[in-house]
């Protein structure tokens, strides 16, 4: 069971597969399946509220398949149990980012003072450049 805020995801919705890790490690890596591939079906999960599901599916993340399944691979740690915990923590963090709706941006307009300062700076820069081109040696 994974708990994120007030959302509880039961074990039955999580699919774990244990595979061999990639990379260095010698005999241990070649013999023991310590890496965890955690799959969570976002699109079909009854545990997620509809707004959270929509925000998760709208995210452009390479870990989400076209069917709406989130795939998390955990293989950095040495034991299967620690990789399982790591995968579940990453799942909780991923879902936790979508719990709250992002604030709507309120478009603002530049103040009169900021417009005047910008134009004054442009004028000043223009006079500097004009001064470089004058060649009155008379």
From TrEMBL:
Segments crossing the lipid bilayer: none
Comp. bias regions, Basic and acidic residues: 113-138
Gene Ontology BP, a term: rescue of stalled ribosome
EC code: 3.1.1.29
Alphabetically ordered keywords of this record: Hydrolase
Keyword Transport: no
InterPro entries according to UniProt: Pep_chain_release_fac_I
Keyword Hydrolase appears in the UniProt entry: yes
Gene3D superfamilies: 3.30.160.20
Chain intervals for the UniProt region annotation (Disordered): 98-138
GO terms assigned for molecular function: peptidyl-tRNA hydrolase activity; ribosome binding; translation release factor activity
SUPFAM superfamilies, A to Z: Peptidyl-tRNA hydrolase domain-like
Pfam families: RF-1
Residue ranges annotated for the Prokaryotic-type class I peptide chain release factors domain, each copy included: 20-36
Name assigned to this protein: Aminoacyl-tRNA hydrolase
Native organism taxonomy: Bacteria, Pseudomonadati, Pseudomonadota, Gammaproteobacteria, Lysobacterales
Originating gene: arfB
């Amino acid at each position: 069971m994974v708990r994120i805020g007030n959302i509880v995801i039961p074990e039955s919705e999580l699919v774990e597969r244990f595979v061999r890790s990639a990379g260095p490690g010698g005999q241990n890596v070649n013999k023991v399946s310590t890496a965890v591939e955690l799959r969570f079906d976002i699109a079909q999960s009854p545990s997620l509220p509809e707004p959270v599901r929509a925000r998760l599916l709208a995210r452009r993340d390479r870990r989400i398949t076209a069917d709406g399944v989130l795939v998390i691979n955990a293989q950095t740690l040495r034991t299967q149990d620690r990789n399982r915990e790591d995968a579940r923590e990453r799942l909780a963090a991923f879902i936790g980012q979508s719990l709250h709706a992002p604030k709507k941006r309120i478009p603002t307009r530049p103040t009169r003072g900021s417009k005047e300062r910008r134009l004054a700076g442009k004028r000043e820069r223009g006079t500097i450049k004009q001064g470089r081109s004058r060649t009155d040696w008379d």
